[in-house]
Every structure is written in C-alpha cells, then in structure tokens.
Amino acid sequence: MSNRRIVLAERPHGAPAAHNFRLEEVPVPEFAAGELVSRTLYLSLDPYMRGRMSDAPSYSPPVAIDEVMTGGTVGQGGASRRDGFAPGDFVVGRGGWQDFSVYKKGEMRKVDPAAAPLSTALGVLGMPGMTAYTGLHEIGRPQAGETLVVAAASGAVGAVVGQIARIKGCRVVGIAGSKDKCAYVVDELGFDACLDHRAEGFADALAAACPEGIDVYWENVGGAVFDAVLPLLNPFARIPVCGLIAQYNATELPAGPDRLPLLFRNVLTKRLTIRGFIVFDFAALEEKFQSEVGAWVRDGGIRYREDIRDGLENAPEAFMGLLGGANFGKLLVRVAPDPTA
Amino acid sequence: MSNRRIVLAERPHGAPAAHNFRLEEVPVPEFAAGELVSRTLYLSLDPYMRGRMSDAPSYSPPVAIDEVMTGGTVGQGGASRRDGFAPGDFVVGRGGWQDFSVYKKGEMRKVDPAAAPLSTALGVLGMPGMTAYTGLHEIGRPQAGETLVVAAASGAVGAVVGQIARIKGCRVVGIAGSKDKCAYVVDELGFDACLDHRAEGFADALAAACPEGIDVYWENVGGAVFDAVLPLLNPFARIPVCGLIAQYNATELPAGPDRLPLLFRNVLTKRLTIRGFIVFDFAALEEKFQSEVGAWVRDGGIRYREDIRDGLENAPEAFMGLLGGANFGKLLVRVAPDPTA
What we know:
- 2 copies of one chain form a homodimer.
- Chain A is of the alpha/beta class.
- Chain A has 2 domains: about 1-125 and about 305-335, Alpha-Beta Complex (Quinone Oxidoreductase, Chain A, domain 1), CATH 3.90.180.10; about 125-280, Rossmann fold (3-Layer(aba) Sandwich), CATH 3.40.50.720.
- The first copy, chain A, is built from 9 helices and 15 strands.
- In chain A, strands 3, 4, 5, 6, 7, 14 and 15 form a 7-stranded mixed sheet that branches.
- In chain A, helix 7 (about 260-270) links the parallel strand 12 and strand 13 (about 275).
- In chain A, helix 2 packs across helix 3 (about 160-165).
- Chains A and B meet through helix 7 and strand 13 of A and helix 7 and strand 13 of B.
C-alpha cells in the first residue's frame, strides 16, 4: 500500500498554478510507539494555505519546498500503538494533503461520528467555526440591535459569524460573490440581507442595507469590500481581521493614492478597533465553542453547507478555485469514502 | 471692562493662517444664578483644535464660524452666583480663547494651587496627561520588558506616555523633531533613546534603537513616523491612536501605491490591535489618574516641561507653530498673570 501525497513543488508568484504542486507516491509512513497512523477521509481546504505556500513572514512558518502541503484532516485510525485509541477510531488533526498521516500524542483528537457528521470537524465544528466563534467573542462582541457585516458570507467562517450574530440579536448583512450565494445566505442562513459585491452599485446597496451604519465588520476579504464598508462604520465599530482572501494572490500594492492616512483618520475620529487574530490565539475557548456552537448546530440555529470534491488528486484545482470564490460552502476533499456517511 | 476673544473667522484650507482667526472685544459676558464667571489665566493649545476648525465629520462638532475658538483654560473665579465657589477660587474648564468665560454647573472643577502649579491642570495633570494615562491603561497596556515607541515624545502627551511606560518597566524610545528635544527626552525624562525623525537614516536608527521590535506604538503623529514603525512591530503589538498631527493640515491623500492592503496584511499576520480613542471615552478613570499621576508628579517620577507664550493675541501664531512642532513642551498661553506663580 502506498501513500499518495501532494507536496509544494515551487512557490507561486501571484495566483497558485497546477505546477506549484506535485502528486507523489511514497510508502505509507512508519510509526513508532505512542503514535497513530490515520487514513485520511476528508481534507479541509482553507484560504490560509495560500499564506503557507509563500515565504513572506507570517504567523506560521511556510511549507518547505518538497514538503507535504499542510491542512486539517479527518481520518480513521488504523494500526495504533497509542493508548486510548482503537483501530477504526476517527480523529481530527493536521494530517496534510495525503492519504495517510502519523500523529504523535497531542497532535489529534478523537471525533465522535454519532454527535455530528465527521466532516463538520473541519467546518462548522472545526477550525473555521472556532475562528468565527472566538473572533466574535473576543473582538467583534456583537450586541443586540447592532449591525454586523460579514464578507464571504456563504463561506465556512462567514456563515457562522453571521448566524451567531443573528442569534445575538444583530441586524446581519452578508456579502457574497454571486446571486445564488446571496439567496442561500438570506433564505437558508437567515441573514437580513446579502449583497453581491460583483454587482453594479454595490457600495450604494450596502449603504442602503445598513441604514444605521455598521458596528462590526468581519474582515476576511480585504480589497474593494472594505472600501465600501469604511464610510459606513459607526463610532466604536470593531473590525476583527481574520483573513484577506482578496489580496492573497496580489504581487504588488494597488495604485494610489495612499489611503493609509484616510484609514487612520477614521480610526481616530470614529474610535475604531482593528484587530488581527488567528484561531489558535484563543485556544482556551475550545470547550466553550464546542458546547455552544455544537448545541446550535444540533438545534438548527446554525446551519452549514459543504462543497465536497472527490479525490486527493483534485485538491490543487479545488484550492485554486477557492481563492477566487469558486466554491459554495465549506470546501472539502473526500480522500477516501466516509464509512459513517 | 471688556472681554477679548478670538473667534474662528473662516475655515482653513491646509495649514491654518492668521486670517482664519479674528480678535474681537465684546462686553464681559452676563451670568445667571448658578453660574460662575472666570477670568482666564492660562489657555491650553492642543493639536485637536485643528480638527475643530474643520467641518469634516469627527467625534465633536466643529467650532462655528464667528464662534469663540474652543480650548481648555485655567481661570480665577470673580463674582460668583454659584454655591461652593468663592471669589478668587481657581477653576479648570473649557473656557475657550478669551479673557472671561461663564460656567454652568458641571462645566468646570476647582483646582487647588497648593497641590501643583495651576498650569499643570492643562498639562500633565489635565487633558494631555489623562490622555496618556488612559490610552496606556486601556489600549497600550505596556508590560515590563516590552518596548514602547512614542512620537512627539517631548510633547504634552508623549512625555507622559513614555514616562509611565518607563515606570512600568518598558524600554522606551521617543521620537521628536530636533536634537534639543531628543536630548531633553533622554536626559530629563529618562527615555532609553530618542530619535530625530528629521535626521538622515531615521528608519535605520529606529530599528537599531528597538533591537527586540516594538510592542506598543503610541500614535499621535501619523505619516512618515508610522512608516518606520510598521516593519518593526512585534506580534500582538498594540497601537493606541490618539492623534495624527502630521496629517491634520493635509488637503489630499499622498501619492500611491495604496498601502491599505500592506497595513491589513501586517494586522493579520502580526495580530496587531489598532484602536482610536478620545480622552473622554475613559472619563471613569479620572480619579485613578489624578491620584496615580499626581503622586508621580509630586515624587519626581514624572517630569514635565511647559512652553508658555504671553498674551491672548498671540494664541493663533502659537497654535500655528504647534502643528509644525515649533513648541517645546506643553504649549500654553498666559492670558493674565497667575497670582500663585
């Protein structure tokens, strides 16, 4: 039996291309005492991976050339030399873009397929959901009656951000990249409004959808969406900065004028808070997140949508599409059949 | 007896000019039951006044055309129809650029000339000192061993910011606009270093003065100073935005490229917090401020320097100089002799 894996062949310049990745077959990794080997069922594809492909300074070191692409996975444990795990147990960890991965103690946790579908451990009840929950809890702090705007509203993080804010009593306005996505965000997720940022007159439509301004803007996009948001921000607005997908592939700064002074003037006169964070900054909230969001998922207060592609070999193409918004819902690759589905 | 006052004659375009102000003589204002008339001894001149001259949206409404310029003052009460105040009592309030002002209840408070020189109620123990104290307390949160950088370091706010951070055990690096100011900041105020932002090689010198990066950058300047700071910011750095004096007179945005995406990338990858504030957001800390900073001023832990100009008629020129850094220390106008000095 061999292990197929996708490694970083070279660093992209601008948008990633197929030749930046390489599919290899290698022997299934050896494992030592205390380790567990897991067969990947689902691989999560997330925007942050674009950052790991680059060697620009960031909060995590980049993936090395010829190293397996990093990524969250749900897998099923095979032969185990690890106490407390039986063959067949399901685990979630950072297995990477490959068929098999080996975990040391503390690198994975068990997932109970009876509590929720296994794939949710990579989405609404995994890193993206936790990102949404903790960023609101610690930075956004939505209050009843306030207006929250979230971009990429049908995506893995945005959908949870908006639904939590709805539960908290906010007016919630989503922004998404197509009519279909907007319809889903309003009809299925219960947002008050959703706007297509590609549509003519987007900035005016956003202003109309936020008659009392914006108190929380969840930033996971950057670029033109932020431009439309800035003039609408209310005094004391909070801006959790969680991602900047619209600029990840940029190779140079946009043309001027330089709007840094404009931003700072707004920060000062409106007393804005802009704060970047990474989900693992708030790891202490994991239990609270699982219990609170888990309950909302079970009672239907929070809904989710997955966009599942089959076959590890299709991961690069799916990932490249993700950066342009080609997915609709949490993007996953089914690497092997899910025996619980 | 007449009341000389300086009103806003017209709104400036760019840097304020003499003709934007007008000196008038009017009768001493009438006062009603419960009111107090005060003769101005000191008028405080502060950068925020540039904002009040403009009708761009801000946290406070602008001064109206033909209205007295706004400003903090220390005065001596004359005839009083207000309980608890005797003729001759000293008060601090927002009397504006004029010889006499009338206060209603709650618009001023008494100042004890035995506790500290009267003028300090407009500086180290007044609004600028409180700005420094509260912004650090609520946003900057300097921890022992961290590095704090503050621009306009010899100014009314910057000097207090740096000295508090020193007391808290930080490495403190000031930035100021001349050799003399830098010498004062290091020799008198005890900063670890101070750099002239007008000197050749400023950015490199700042990097050398901050070998472990920057954990707190106190922003009261904007512009080129921030550019030198940005690459040095450490993960989780905090940036209280208190003022932007370097850009108050700007009439247009600088040329490109547009560095907004660069800023946001730094916010995300370094998990920065950028937060604007106004001193009155933290009014609840007034008592704590007076007690803590008052004690430091009395024991010499915090020192201060005043730049006092004589004559109300010279206020416009002094203020215009302030925006270019022509003052050295807290800028005040002595409107009438201080009987306690």
